[in-house]
Write a structure and sequence with these properties.
Elements: H1 3-17, E1 19-20, H2 52-55, E2 57-63, E3 72-78, E4 93-94, E5 96-100, H3 112-123, E6 125-129, H4 146-162, E7 168-169, E8 175-180, H5 182-197, E9 204-210, E10 242-248, H6 259-272, E11 277-282, H7 309-327, H8 334-337, H9 342-345, E12 364-366, E13 400-404, E14 433-438, E15 442-446, H10 452-456, E16 465-478, E17 485-492, E18 500-503, E19 512-517, E20 529-531, E21 538-540, E22 548-555, E23 571-586, E24 596-597, E25 603-605, E26 611-612, E27 637-640, E28 647-655, E29 659-669, E30 676-682, E31 688-694, E32 700-703, E33 712-714, E34 718-726, E35 732-743
Parallel strand pairs: 4-7, 5-6, 5-8, 8-9, 9-10, 10-11
Antiparallel strand pairs: 1-13, 2-3, 3-6, 11-12, 13-15, 14-23, 15-22, 16-19, 16-23, 17-18, 17-22, 20-21, 24-35, 25-28, 26-27, 27-35, 28-34, 29-32, 29-33, 29-35, 30-31, 30-34
Helix pairs in contact: 3-7, 4-5
């Protein structure tokens, strides 16, 4: 996790501390603890094999017979004491499960606790193939087939276990497949080829994919990488197989990971006719400490791993539930595996020191392909990229909510957490939130992770996207229509400082969906979403540090003359769910052909102070790394240190060809209220082609597509002047790290 990402976590926590939570929940000074491992259920600590993680499991290190130098595999076999509550005696045969690792996570240490849980819970033999041709973190340099490697390892392990001592494989229970990241992509292909690749008894019973990644990435390169694509032939996948794909709302790892990966697998199996399909969306929860972060590595046991609720109630519970339901045929475990029941969706409860415990944000289950399938799109990683990238547009539910001091009323004071997902999904049975006897009560929702797909589709090279529309939906109703009750919905792009509002129609007395905004409605705001060059973090007004939704209850008739107070202060407003969707497209990247960094000497223009060199030689622009905000001691600064006139410096550059050029700059001003700019002029200073403006004291990346004007249209090759300007004001200063002028292709 980068320092900036970590700082955002703390910023989110700081924001949360300013919220007054609805009555009946923890006081502001409490530090709720996330739930520990449950004592029962598929994710619980009541193991049938009771000898412990070490003594209850036998690990057999195997090797493929046809490739002795690569593709190790491990076999996990249950052993030791048996709890007679699970049966009169320990079984002699148990089901076969395959667990497939992510990219470069070939060591079994990354999934060791997970595997031992499945082995010891009810009994299973788990094969863990290292299917990657190399343990190096990079992709293979030549085409390879991880699924074939995995199938070879499975077959070799089956042969090994046929003569091994102790518990063996039950050949009547079929095959279970669990894959993480690239292992989920590989697992899909293992399932698709199982009928031809493994013994006929090993029919796939279930496939559990967690944060599938790498699908289709780099498959247009030379040489191509077909190993990163899922098989198109799924005709041999049993239609009775159960499929679940789990994705986290903080899975912003690129290359079709998480949400986009689940979408693709879901659609492929739908076309095959597999009816038992679910997508499980896990939402981060910052209510307690440490926070529960549903990112791309929520299944991986990195060094220092200690386990959390997303393991025990998430990946551990769902994976083991499928083993118990589909292979052990334990019917009582099926409600934990699928169906959208509270057994499946619950991620446990926080411990709030004796006060009413709040639930962790439950899993959101999707069983249809509504808003799931992505539109086919060009590869945004190609150079140059082809056309625009058309992303998925998925509704997302908030991970956090609360009443904020200074807002109206006291918010949704009853069961506020239930409004974070459709139907509640909480074991307590609360399916909606309420504001009782209210009018003009406001409640906020945030942490929607709207920029998840955005981050996955953008390179860290200064690319940017255009937000085409924001859509908010609220499922709500009132106890009566008297007085015309309705809702206001507002969105904020700056953490709740600035809001844009829309109102609903008059509510009904039954649960109904009301839509605010839409695919082409930007709420009167130009949304800023871009990457800073060479910086992995996304600067985003639709991100969790910025985007919020606020609902406010209201009545339609108390402004009449005479006023109608039949609604004011007496209506009950019930909110089942709040969700938001962003519609967007990516602009083509700027390539370096015809583009150039501006460096070297900058000429002071005759205003007071003008260009001040704060270190090094060569003028006013830092000669350091492009896009990296160095310390001020090494920065060249454009500084107007005294007086009230502008500080200016310029550089004359030659434009090699006609066309549209994009100006990019990284800069900041010294203090709030100051402004500065970078602009492009003709050689005689009579025409300004384009400009960007800076108003923030934080390093900010600006391009001529977003702030505030358009690209530079240069009709003939010529010399142009690029001007740095600190606007008029005593001690005003513009700091500039890099300036680039590049042709749009």
């Amino acid at each position: 996790m980068s320092i900036r990402t970590l700082s955002r976590v703390f910023a989110t926590l700081a924001l949360a501390s300013s919220f007054i939570v609805a009555a009946g929940h923890e006081p502001a000074w409490a530090t709720p603890a996330p739930p520990g491992q449950p004592t029962s259920g598929p994710g619980g600590s009541n193991y049938c094999f009771t000898s412990g993680e070490t003594n209850g499991v036998n690990v057999i290190a195997g090797k493929q017979t046809d490739s002795p130098t690569e593709n190790d595999y491990w076999i996990y076999q249950p052993k030791g004491s048996w709890d007679t509550a699970c049966g009169a005696s320990a079984p002699t045969v148990v089901p076969l499960v395959v667990v497939l690792h992510g990219l470069s996570d070939g060591s079994n240490s990354y999934y060791d606790h997970y595997i031992r849980h499945i082995v010891r819970k009810r009994g299973a033999i788990v094969v863990y193939p290292r299917y990657q041709p190399s343990a190096a973190p990079n992709l293979p340099t030549s085409p390879a087939d991880p699924a074939s490697n995995a199938i070879d390892a499975i077959n070799d392990a089956i042969t090994t276990m046929s003569t091994a001592s102790g518990i063996r494989i039950d050949t009547t229970k079929g095959l279970g497949v669990i894959g993480n990241s690239w292992g989920a992509t590989t697992g899909f292909n293992v399932v698709a080829r199982a009928s031809a690749g493994v013994p006929s008894w090993a029919t796939p019973k279930f496939f559990f994919a967690v944060a599938p990644g790498m699908i289709g990435y780099r498959n247009t390169e030379n040489p191509p990488h077909p190993e990163l694509e899922v098989d198109s032939d799924v005709s041999h996948v049993p239609t009775t197989m159960r499929f679940a794909c789990m994705t986290g709302d903080r899975d912003v790892w690129p290359n079709s990971a998480g949400e986009q990966g689940c979408d693709k697998l879901f659609k492929r199996l739908k076309d095959r006719g597999v009816t038992g399909r679910e997508i499980l969306r896990v939402r981060s929860d910052f209510h307690g400490w440490p926070p529960l972060i549903a990112n791309h590595e929520m299944m991986v046991e990195n060094p220092g791993w200690a386990g959390d609720a997303l393991d025990w109630y998430g990946t551990w519970k769902i994976g083991e539930a499928y083993v118990e339901c589909t292979q052990h045929a334990i019917s009582g475990s099926c409600s934990y595996a699928y169906g959208g029941t509270s057994d499946e969706t619950s991620l446990g409860y926080f411990t709030d020191g004796g006060v009413t415990n709040d639930p962790v944000n439950p899993i959101v289950v999707t069983t249809t392909d509504d808003n799931i399938e992505c539109t086919a799109a060009p590869d945004p990683f190609a150079t140059p990229p082809t056309s625009y990238y058309t992303p998925c547009a998925n509704f997302r539910y908030p991970a956090s909510s609360g009443y904020v001091t200074g807002d109206n009323g006291n918010g949704l004071e009853s069961n506020q957490f239930a409004a974070r997902t459709k139907g509640g999904g909480y074991p307590s049975g609360a399916t909606y939130a309420s504001s009782v006897n209210s009018t003009w009560d406001a409640h906020r929702f945030w942490d929607f992770a709207l920029d998840q797909d955005v981050a996955a589709a953008m390179r860290n090279d200064g690319s940017e996207i255009v937000v085409d529309g924001i859509e908010v939906q609220a499922d709500w109703w009132a106890d009566s229509t008297a007085g015309s009750p309705f809702l206001w919905a507002e969105v904020s792009w700056d953490g709740g400082t600035t809001w844009a509002a829309k109102s609903s129609n008059v509510g009904t007395t039954s649960n109904a969906t009301y839509t605010f905004g839409g695919a082409t409605d930007t709420w009167g705001h130009t949304w800023d979403v871009h990457h800073v060059a060479n910086d992995p973090d996304l600067i985003s007004e639709i991100g969790d540090g910025s985007f919020q939704v606020r609902l406010t209850t209201d009545c339609g008739n108390y402004y009449l003359t005479p006023a109608d107070y039949t609604c004011y202060g007496v209506r009950d407003f019930n909110v089942d769910a709040v969700r938001a969707k962003v519609y967007w497209h990516a602009r083509p990247n700027i390539v370096t052909n015809g583009g150039f960094e501006l460096a070297g000497s900058w000429t002071n223009v005759g205003y007071q102070s003008g260009c001040i060199n704060a270190g090094g030689t060569g003028g006013c622009l830092n000669g350091g790394t492009s896009g990296v905000a160095e310390t001020l001691t090494s920065e060249y600064l454009l500084n107007n240190s005294t007086g009230s006139t502008k500080g200016q410096a310029y550089q004359a550059v030659s434009v090699p060809s006609t066309g549209t050029y994009r100006l990019q700059a990284l800069g900041k001003v010294l203090s709030a209220g100051q402004t500065g700019s970078v602009s492009v002029w003709n050689s005689t200073w009579t025409t300004m082609y384009c400009y960007v403006q800076f108003t923030s004291t934080a390093w900010t990346f600006k391009t001529t597509t977003s702030s505030p004007a358009t690209d530079c249209s240069l009709t003939s090759p010529a010399t142009v002047n690029v001007l740095l300007q600190s606007d008029a004001g005593a001690n005003w200063r513009l700091d500039v790290d890099s300036v680039k002028l590049a042709k749009v292709v």
